[in-house]
Fold this protein.
Amino acid sequence: MPKVKIPTPLRQYTSGNSEVEVGGGTAGDALGNLVEEHPDLKQHLYTGDGKLRSFVNVYKGDEDIRYLDGQDTEVSQDDELSIIPSIAGGRCK
Amino acid sequence: MPLKIGAGDVGHIHDHAKETYPEECAGALVGMDTGEMKVVVDVWRAENTHEDERSRRFLIEPLKIKEFEERAQERDMDVLGFYHSHPDHPAEPSEYDREHAWPYYSYVIASVGADNVEDMRSWVLKDDRSGYDEEPIVG
């Protein structure tokens, strides 16, 4: 099964694991299964209307899935997906 | 959980905030989580790569975060959080900060004016993302 690498701030929701094996033939399926297994991850990865948050980046190997086929990016048994934060902020709207 | 930062690293953050004023600066806090305290051992500067409005916005790109995580792991450390500055604005997180925040990470904010860093405080996102808890900064 493909592996998903979990960044430090989210490991508290995966029992401390830095890698989780999940089923799924696409990045979207794999992430969906990840969230189903670890429901506390959901609010940190997705907005209220079910879109991946803008500062949540998912890489297949070294490539951002946004530049592949997004959630439809195919993943195989040996692929590794990584959830990588971008850090943003600022003083006011 | 208290955040322990030595005077030298506090000085590095203040210097960075003053150098980039009136734009926001940003960087990583690296060290160990003892379970009772986050102990900062080093602070690493990052370039603020936000496309515009850098006086009130900052961005650290994901590949930079990946590099920080890998560099920290090579040294048996973790990325504990990030610092950024609020030029001419209090050291409190904004709504924009909250929307973009990750759990667990410490967010150190330095309020900086033209001459001095006025204040520095540390914040952690609440689990339900509804707001922040302030963490004490200890020396």
In short: The domain at 3-85 of chain A is CATH 3.10.20.30 (Ubiquitin-like (UB roll)).
